[in-house]
Amino acid sequence: MACRIADPSVFLFTGPRQRTRSQKIATHSAPCMTGNWHLTWDRLLVKGENNKKWVIPMRRTRTVQAVAAPVAPSSADSAGYRKQLAESYGFRKIGEPLPDNITLKDVMDTLPKKVFEIDDMKAWKSVLVSVTSYAFGLFMISKAPWYLLPFAWAWTGTAVTGFFVIGHDCAHKSFSRNKLVEDIVGTLAFLPLIYPYEPWRFKHDRHHAKTNMLEEDTAWHPVWKAEFDSSPILRKAIIFGYGPFRPWMSIGHWLIWHFDLKKFRSNETQRVKISLACVFGFMAVGWPLIIYKAGIMGWIKFWLMPWLGYHFWMSTFTMVHHTAPHIPFKSSDEWNAAQAQLNGTVHCDYPSWIEILCHDINVHIPHHVSSRIPHYNLRMAHESLQENWGKV
């Protein structure tokens, strides 16, 4: 059984056939005497709280063991219960459940047509912002005394995350009207991250198609309790991974999902091989050049530390976007696209400098309603969704 662990949400599923109403679930892991896990939702962000506008109706989901002391289920339709959840988890709001008869097309049809329009000037302006901010970060690293290096690394890691967002738009065909331009820009944007563009694109498309679906979602999804209990080594790895290594869990995801040709369909492998060749070529040329010019310590200062900063944001953003104690993962026979994309996606406010350098990737609800919305139109789309669907 495929198994990805929601970062940092570890959901222990007791079995594929048992069903119950959803319980209050997990996210900060701490081992209990029983061998299960007690999980609480910590506020992980320095500034800004999760602004959850919608919540999946919590009906007939598979049994979730919320660890040592399960909380009695309550009605998701209760305003008081939603308010209690919001206060407990640090959300500003948890809205009413989405009606069962609403489809994803119904939601998309309420968005203004303008949000889908590609603006070449805005797209290339984003490239300029990322290149300039990244170059400035490298300059700061070269000039900063040792005690200011962490600040320079934080800036540079955040700036290079903007490269990922540009490649992300290219993969969703929302950067340019020219597919070749998108493939070239996306590949180049991913190279400093050592991310193969096409393998990531294929896997990410499946994440959008199967968001918060048990087993099928390629971003993060729960580990089954039986598998968790099956190996002491796996159990210790999870404890370590969701302890000190938690902000960099995306590194494991990067290694597991993007470099194994067996994970791709036969009609995908040629493009995957081209992307892998580009990445390995960048490593073969770029890394020795950095070491030749600045030594091993220069490679650590100018590449490795910003790269770890990027993965900090990748892990944090992915965790915040799709894992929260009240958002269930559902089996394919229970899964509904509108509920998964609108109700299963979280909006979170970050400090403005992060939003600018990361091109509003955290305005994530409209992106899951339609991935064809360019990043510079996400706020306009979010306002529309609030206006039309803000009560749910």
Automatic annotation (TrEMBL):
Transmembrane region(s): 123-141, 147-167, 272-290, 296-313
GO cellular component, one term: membrane
Keyword match Oxidoreductase: yes
Compartment(s): Membrane
Alphabetical keyword list: Lipid metabolism, Membrane, Oxidoreductase, Transmembrane, Transmembrane helix
UniProt key word Transmembrane: yes
A biological process from GO: lipid metabolic process
Annotated PANTHER family: OMEGA-6 FATTY ACID DESATURASE, CHLOROPLASTIC
Protein name: Fatty acid desaturase domain-containing protein
